[in-house]
Write a structure and sequence with these properties.
There is one protein chain. The chain is mostly helical and 129 residues long. It has helices at 6-17, 37-44, 47-75, 89-97, 101-123. The longest helix has 29 residues, at 47-75.
């Protein structure tokens, strides 16, 4: 039985009323923030924190895609050096995959997505004054 079912709620209510189970706050009413207060809360967060969070997410996804490409290359018997800089990753992988049509067809979209994410990450790099 699904816990979100009406029958489940009736069963819990009966169990609480007859004392078989100590009533817990499972059936409390949910509180929602009004739509008017949402922008005020969003503006209260420092913009620097939001930018850092965005940069961190973009870098993580870029690294995830790079690791996915490494894993796919490993299946085909191609190993990359242990450390490759973010900007030189694409230039290192493309010549390796151009030899095989299947490999190229599989990995090229991942490289494209990784390149776009990396470009957006680099746009958010802080500039030193």
């Amino acid at each position: 039985m699904n816990k979100g079912d009406r029958r489940w709620n009736i069963l819990l209510d009966e169990m609480c009323r007859f004392g078989r189970v100590r009533c817990v706050s499972w059936l409390t009413e949910a509180r929602f923030t009004s739509s008017e207060s949402y922008p005020a809360k969003l503006n209260a967060l420092p913009i620097v924190s939001q930018l850092l969070s965005t940069r961190k997410a973009l870098l993580k996804k870029t690294m995830d895609l790079a690791n996915e490409v490494r894993g796919l290359l490993k299946v085909f018997g191609v190993r990359l050096p242990r450390t490759v800089k973010h900007r030189s990753f694409d230039g290192l992988v493309r010549p390796m995959i151009e030899m095989d049509d299947v490999l190229s067809h599989v990995i090229t979209p991942l490289l494209y997505a990784r390149t776009v994410l990396l470009q957006h990450f680099l746009e958010l790099q802080p500039t030193h004054c």
